[in-house]
Amino acid sequence: MQAMQQQRQSAAPGALAAFARFVLCGGGVGVASSFAVAGLSSWMPWALANALITVVSTLLATELHARFTFGAGGRATWRQHGQSAGSAAAAYGVTCVAMFALQRFVEAPGAVVEQVVYLSASALAGVARFAVLRLVVFARNRSEGAATARPVCAAEGHVLTPAGAAGFCRAA
Questions:
Q1: What whole-number distance in Å separates Cα of residue 19 and Cα of residue 127?
Q2: Residue 96: closest CA among 39, 43, 36, 54
Q3: HEC states along 46-95?
Q4: 128 pLDDT exceeds 80?
Q5: Tens digits of residue pLDDT in 152-163
Q6: pLDDT tens, 50-88?
Q7: Cα Rg of the chain, angstroms
Q8: Are 125 and 88 in contact (CB under 8 A)?
Q9: Residue 118: strand pairing partners
Q10: Closest by CA position to 68, among listed 18, 27, 29
């Protein structure tokens, strides 16, 4: 079991692949969230609807990012959920500011304009979240996996056992 997790961790995707997966997972959750916020805002204040949907979508997206986007090898930890929630809170602030600015400067924006503004603000915040998630939240998993890797003797191309790692590489 532990070997499978280490194998998944060592197979973490590169930045471009991770960003593509982030866009797929986060974007899919984001688009669904925008419709959910629009629907809920007819029953409650927009900021409250956005807050509720942000909580639910953050939990879902963090799990998807842990399992799929960043190759963490399993479910997200409570620490990762907490850190992800911090970046989501910042994204929530960005979307709120964008929507409040829209309401202030456009007397009666239509649903399409609201969706464009909301999704644009979400995309901007999403790029910043990607950086935070990749470099901070899920970076520890990759460094822990790398720290447990066994050294390879480059000249001979074989893996050294822990007992032989100290001095059996003739190329050194």
A1: 9
A2: 54
A3: HHHHHHHHHHHHHHHHHHHHHHHHCCCCCCCCHHHHHHHHHHHHHHHHHH
A4: yes
A5: 444 444 444 444
A6: 889 988 988 998 888 888 888 767 888 888 889 888 988
A7: 21
A8: no
A9: none
A10: 18
